[in-house]
Each structure stands twice: as structure tokens, then as C-alpha cells.
Amino acid sequence: MSLNLDARQRAMLQEMGHPLWWPESPAPAAQTGPEVTPAPAPLAAARLHAEPVPATVGTTAPAAPAAPTMPAAAVPETAAPAPAPAPAAARPTSPQALPADFPRVRFALRAPVLLDLQGKQQPPVAATRPAWLVVAELPEGAPHQGEACQLLLQMLRAMRLTDAPVYWVPLARIPANQEGDDGLPSYSIDALVQECQPAMALLLGLPAVRHLMPGDQPFSRLRQQLHQLGGSQLPAVVSYDPSHLLRTPQAKAATWADLCFALAQAGR
Q1: How many C-beta atoms surround the C-beta of residue 55 within 10 A?
Q2: What integer pLDDT is reported at residue 102 of this predicted model?
Q3: Nearest Cα residue to 262 out of 111, 188, 161, 147
Q4: Of 163, 240, 250, nearest to 209 (Cα)?
Q5: Distance between CA 126 and CA 184 in Å, rounded?
Q6: pLDDT tens for residues 102-142?
């Protein structure tokens, strides 16, 4: 039986509820027949290469036979070039970077000064205890002058060192670009031990610690420990300097604990 039915036979079967499902049946009305198929792909690709790509097109053209040259308009305008890096001279300088000629600071120990802890209104008391060395940088530069010096005297009186010789060893700042030590005598820790014969030393402040103790350990880790200075192995205790206590009063409690530790180590 032949299935090549005409239009009338197909319409009758459709009305009877027997639609035909056969490859040769015509496509639905929404689709076009074989006679109106679109142009083949190679023809469309050839049209793409025949017409120049607009400048605003941002997509890449499909693969096609090699063209003589790539048109300049094929580069999308939306891809802006990356900004050029700023020249080295215009970049801001890091705050940690110091100029090469920045003046560095050196320190020197000056001649020891015997402190008067008894006061002018009290009769002098003979020394009955070993001497102490106090190494500290005081901005006033002389004992009994300024708030830092007065605070240092009060600290030593609170330790009840009035019956012991207490020598203050000034720590002077000297710029690194300056030759010599201003013509003033400077001392080593061994020379100070030989001259004053101390039994204990107090290193007050970071400059004194860095000048007399090797290494770069944090200042907080050096407190509450007994250190040895120089070849004479002089016992020493580290604490805050009076100038720091004037700026940070809450550190006075920790400083008093360090002074009590020094007294205990001295055998009191």
C-alpha cells in the first residue's frame, strides 16, 4: 500500500483522529518547507568576512579562512589600556625609609656624680653599705634640677639608700656625624666599677640598656632579671627611666617592682 497520500486523504484521516507521523509528512505551519531552507553556513561565513566588523563590536569573529590582515576595528573599544605605573620620583616615600644622611645617635658614659640622698637639712651619714651605680639619660643634664632628676632622687630615697654611696652615671647623646666625644671624658663600665666599687647597677631606660648590654631583646623581657655587665660581671637590673615615668605614670608600679627586685638581689 502506498503512503503517498494527497492533501484530501490526509485531511480525512486527520478528522477521523488518525494523524500521520511519517518523515515525509510536511512540517508544522510554524516551520518552513525544504524549499525555503536558510542559506548554507559557508555562505554566511563568507559574508562575515566580506563586511568589516563595526568598531563597537566586542565579540570575537568565528573561525574562518585566513584573511590577509586583521582589521584594526576588530579590537573592542571597551577594553581600556591599563594605566601606566607612576614614575619612581612621584611615588610617596615610605615613612620608615630614612634618608642616607639622617643623623644617627651614639651614647657615651660621662663621669659619675655622687648623689645627695640625705638632703641639706640633715647631717651627713657615713656610708655603711656598698655603692650603687645608676645609669640613666636625664634631659636636664644635672642632678637636683628638673622633674626627672627630682623623681630619680625620690625613687632612690624610697629604696632607703641614704646610707650607701649612689653614683649617677650620665648617659650623653652624641650625633654619629660628630667626631670624638665633645672633648669630655667618657668611661667604660669596667672603669666605673674600678673607680666607684659598686655592688649593684640600675640601668634606667632603653638607651642605657642598648649601650651597655649586647643584643636586641625587647625591653620588657629584660626586666625582673639579674644581668652581668662588662668583664667585672657587675650585677645589674633593668627598669624604666624617670622621664618615661613622667610621661606614663601608670608604669610607676612596674618600676617599683623592679627596684624591690634589685634590693632583694643586693642582699637586703
Answers
A1: 13
A2: 42
A3: 161
A4: 240
A5: 31
A6: 445 678 888 898 988 877 655 666 677 899 999 998 876 65
